[in-house]
Every structure is written in C-alpha cells, then in structure tokens.
Design goal:
This protein is of the alpha+beta class and about 250 residues long. It has one domain. It is built from six helices and eleven strands. It has a four-stranded mixed beta sheet, sandwiched between helices. A hairpin with a 2-residue loop joins strand 10 and strand 11. It is globular.
Length: about 250
C-alpha cells in the first residue's frame, strides 16, 4: 500500500515501547547508504506511464498524506481527503484514533483515488509525496520465512515500465526524496503515538479492544463514528460515515 498504519490495535506492546521501536527504525533509515538506494533505482529502471493502476484500492490500500500534503490538497479540493483507514486505537468511550489523513477513494469497483479520471491522474503535476516516490520505498519488512530485509520497490511488474534508462543524477535525487519521505513518515508516526500516550494519561483513558471491534464494525456498516485524527501536531475530532469500501 502507499500508506501504512504501523500500530496494530490489538498489539499488547506498550506505547512507550512502540515509540522506541520507531526511533530505532528511524536510526536504521539514516544509516542506509543513499548510494545503495540510487543504485537499486537505476538497476530496476522504473518509469511511471501514468496508467493509474497504483491509484486504486485494488492495488494499494490507501494513499497516506503527510501534513504538508494535507495543506496542499485543501487548496485543490477540500473534499478530497478523509481519515486514514484502520484507526490504531479506541478508548473506552468509543473514540477512535488514527495517525493522519489519506486521499479520499471513490466507491467504484476499484476504489479509485478521488483525483483519478478515465484512468488518469488529473493533478499529476501536483501529486503528493507518497505518489511522487512510489513505487520506491525504504521500509523493512519480513518475508514468509520471517526474514527481515529492506523493501525498495512495491509490487514490481504490476504497473509502469521497468529496465528503462534513468540518469544517475535523477536516481540520486529520487533516492534522497525517498529517504526524506520515509523519515518524515516515521517522525509523524512517533509524534502521533507520543501524543496519544500523553492524551490517554492526562484523561485517564486507555485502548479498549472490545470497544475498538464494535466501533470498527459500525464503521464498516456505514454508521456514524467519532474519530480523532492526528494532524499538525494535535488530535482533531472528526465525525464520519464510511461511504466507500469498508475499512476492515
């Protein structure tokens, strides 16, 4: 998926431990050589063909927006974004908590991005951070055998063209942008969990798994739910009815 929510709601890992794990991931990101990323980009030789394949739920779960992306999408179309799917937490009062916003997806068979028209992105030159670097990424993931390694490309050979000639300076610039995006994403996630942790402590709240399951069921059925979205350094309450595909 273009976006990702790192926290699994029913995970027993305490929030401070999750924060430490994300900080360690950020340290590993810093230590990964920029030249290695650029070399992989050149070897794979991916070029976007504007086919629109990656701009659907059929290919990617959602397109996560960094805070500056949200600022830009508000200028283009204030109705084009929504809380990211799969909220990470729910307190005992039924309030859901999610780490940020994502591009709105249409309720068609593919779950197309709000800006996808006739299979083409209508704001391609203004597309957002995750869209610009996709399918390049620098995230550690485990394979079926449990081996953890860096994953540099998402869903290869399912869209675009590969084995194209990419100038070295372009590869290096893109590699730098990939690292910058991944760093910004991790900083955002760390800040989100720190904010939720502080909010829970101050308000004597905690994650309630049974309430989480109930609220997610309501959401999947298109019923009204309350959700706190982390944006611009704070939690903002958002009431929503899921009119698209279920978040579950």
């Amino acid at each position: 998926m273009l976006g990702r929510n790192l926290m699994v709601a029913d995970s027993p890992i305490p929030l401070p431990c999750r924060i430490i794990a994300l900080m360690q991931e950020r340290n590993r990101l810093f230590s990964y050589p920029l030249d290695s990323i650029a070399g992989e980009i050149k070897t794979v030789g991916f070029r976007c063909t504007r086919c629109g394949t990656c701009c659907t739920r059929a290919m990617n779960g959602h397109i996560f927006l960094l805070d500056h992306d949200v600022t830009e999408v508000k200028k283009i179309d204030p109705g084009a974004f929504e809380p990211a799917p799969a909220p990470e937490f729910c307190d005992q009062n039924g309030m859901l908590y999610v780490s940020g916003y994502a591009l709105r997806m249409r309720n068609d068979n593919l779950g197309s991005c709000w800006f996808l028209e006739n299979g083409k992105c209508r704001i391609y030159d203004q597309r957002f951070s995750g869209c610009r670097i996709y399918p390049h990424m620098l995230r550690r993931s485990a394979d079926a055998a449990g081996l953890v390694t860096w994953r540099l490309f998402a869903k290869m050979n399912e869209h675009g063209r590969f084995n194209q000639e990419i100038p070295e300076d372009v590869c290096l610039a893109l590699a730098r942008e990939v690292k910058e995006y991944e760093n910004a994403f991790l900083i955002h996630q760390i800040s989100f969990i720190e904010t939720v942790h502080e909010y829970f402590v101050i308000n004597n709240l905690g994650h309630d798994q049974k309430m989480y399951d109930l609220q997610m069921r309501y959401l999947s059925q298109g019923e009204l739910v309350r959700i706190m979205v982390y944006h611009d350094g704070e939690l903002q309450e958002h009431r929503m009815i899921n009119k698209n595909l279920p978040f579950m």
